[in-house]
Structure formats: C-alpha cells, structure tokens
Amino acid sequence: MSNLEAHPDEVELQHDRREGLTLLEPREVPLGGPRAMLVRRTLPHREIRTIGAWCFVDHFGPTHAPSHAVGMHVPPHPHIGLQTVTWLLDGDVAHRDSVGSRQLVHPGELNVMTAGRGIAHSEDSLGPADDGLHGVQLWTALPDGERHQSPHFEHHGDLPVLTAAGVRATVFVGSLDGARSAAAAYSPLLGVEFVLAEGARSTLPLDADFEHGVLAVEGEPVVAGVRVAPSSLLHLPVGRRELAIEGPGRFLLLGGTPFGEDLLMWWNFVARDHDEIARARQDWEAGRGFGHVDHPAGPLAAPALPTTRLKARGNRRR
Ligand code: MN
C-alpha cells in the first residue's frame, strides 16, 4: 500500500474507562495511484499510534459496491523501516517487488514484506474491477536494531488453524494456544483471524504483557462485552489475561508489547527523524537505493515534504 494521507483526521474516541478499552473509528482515505481505491484506516490514530509494533491498519472492500469498484492498483512505491502484512478475505492480489518476488496472495494466506533499509513493490488485484476484493493491510514498525536489515519477502500458504465449536482461528503472526506462525516477526507480536458462527462464544487466553487490538472485518462481533462494527478497532491495554468473544462475525486480533521507540511515519517510510525521511524521499526520486520493480505502470512520485521539520512521536498522545 502507499500512504497518501498528510493529516490524519481527528476522529472522536469512545472510551470505556472501567476497563481501559478504547474504540477507534475508521476514517476513509484514498490509496496511492491514479485509480485510487478508498480504504478505512484506524492506525495510526491521533491518540493511539501503535498497538505493539502494529503501526498501520487499513481495511478495504468488499468491492462489490460501484463506488469501490476500482480494484487495487498501486504502482511501484518504496518502503523503509517496516513490514507490510497483507491479509485477504476475498479476491486475489499480485505482489511484485524489487528483490525479484512475484507472488499472488489468496484468502487465508499471508504475504509479509520486510522492507528493512529499503524495498519497492507494487500491488494489483486480479480480475474485473467489480469482482470481490476484501482484505486488510497492516504494517509493523521494525525496532531500531532490525530496521537496517536487507529487504526480503515471505509468502505463507499453510498457516496454523485452531478450531472449536463455531470458532475458527488462523494464526498469521506469532502464536496462540500452541499454534505458531512461521512468519518473521522482529518484536513480540500476534496476528490472528477469528471467524465466529452465530451464537459461538469463547474465552481466549491473552499474554498480559501485550496490548491488543480487535479489528472487525465482517459482522459485529462482541469482544470484551463491546460490539465492534466493521472497520472499527477496539484497543485493549496491557494486563489483560483473557478475552471473551461472541459471534457472529469475523475479526483480526492484533497484539504486541508496547513499542518503546518514538517513530516518524511519513508517506511510505517509518523512520526516526526528519533527515532520514528526507534522504529516503530523495533517493526514491533519484531512482537510487530501492531497486527496480518490473511493472507496466511507472513508479509513484513521492509527495512534497512539508515545509516544517517532521518530528518523531511516542506511541501515545502526550
Ligand atoms: Mn506498499
């Protein structure tokens, strides 16, 4: 994905002070490219910028509605300092990158791209524009000791699945209840998709050192007693040992230890200071350092830097 959003909207928060729960409502933003698809974004949020290392949450589709029937077509664009994590519920997306990867991703499979010091990629949905496309793209911030590593790409087509009465859970990052994803993670992280049938109820064990987020993608699951509407993200602070869930609905459970480093996110870059962002932008515009993506569309141009210096910020509003 390519992030075009210059000024995240100031979205109202709903707090449940008894349990420290916060419901983040999505805002609609266009993705990069000449035929921009609208996505619903919940992270970064003005108040809660990260959940563990998860620093970016976009929910897109389903694209059957005519207003969304443009599909996903994001020409080559750069990333530094992050991983992109692509999870589909419907449709197929073709990924190409500058380390030579060409990979289709289908529902139930995972594409993870670790940008490290720099990579470029493109993403295109297949089939007619009004075909079903429904999914989520997430970014994780790489910790300082990992963010200068060489870029690489992983596809995981066979992820561990846990089942119970009316509940199906696919672990795509980290581990839950003994089921572990083979996807590379560079800080303690969790990513699980839950599908709950009508009337299904369960209580999940949680790592109390993690904060968590629940992103509803279908239906309105009830989580920790809160009904979560599609595209909304319920934040659960550290210290929680279990989580009551109730169907019907489908959601992603994201978790991790609170990210302790200040981050500077601008366009498609996750860095630590203004000069680093300016350098990455300059390199991309000069065709340096990110490699080449074999794609019929030309590369996306970087937006102009703001006239003021960008500042890194902590994971919570201070
Ligand atoms: Mn991208």
**What is the rounded distance between the termini?**
29 Å
- The CATH architecture can be named as Sandwich
Broad shape: globular
Number of domain modules: 1
Characterization of the model:
This protein has 318 residues and is mainly β. It has a single domain (15-256), classed as Jelly Rolls (Sandwich), CATH 2.60.120. The chain is built from one helix and 27 strands. β8 and β9 (102-105) form a beta hairpin. Mean pLDDT is 92; it is low at 8-12. The structure holds manganese (II) ion. Manganese (II) ion is lined by residues 1-2, 77, 79, 84, 121, 268.
List the helices and strands and how they pair.
Blueprint: E1 13-16, E2 21-24, E3 27-30, E4 38-43, E5 54-60, E6 73-79, E7 82-90, E8 93-97, E9 102-105, E10 110-114, E11 119-125, E12 134-141, E13 152-156, E14 161-164, E15 167-173, E16 175-176, E17 179-180, E18 189-196, E19 201-205, E20 211-219, E21 222-223, E22 226-227, E23 233-236, E24 242-246, E25 249-256, E26 264-266, E27 269-271, H1 274-285
Antiparallel strand pairs: 1-2, 2-23, 3-4, 4-5, 5-12, 6-11, 7-10, 7-12, 8-9, 8-11, 10-13, 14-15, 15-18, 16-17, 18-25, 19-24, 20-23, 20-25, 21-22, 21-24, 26-27
Bound molecules: manganese (II) ion (MN).
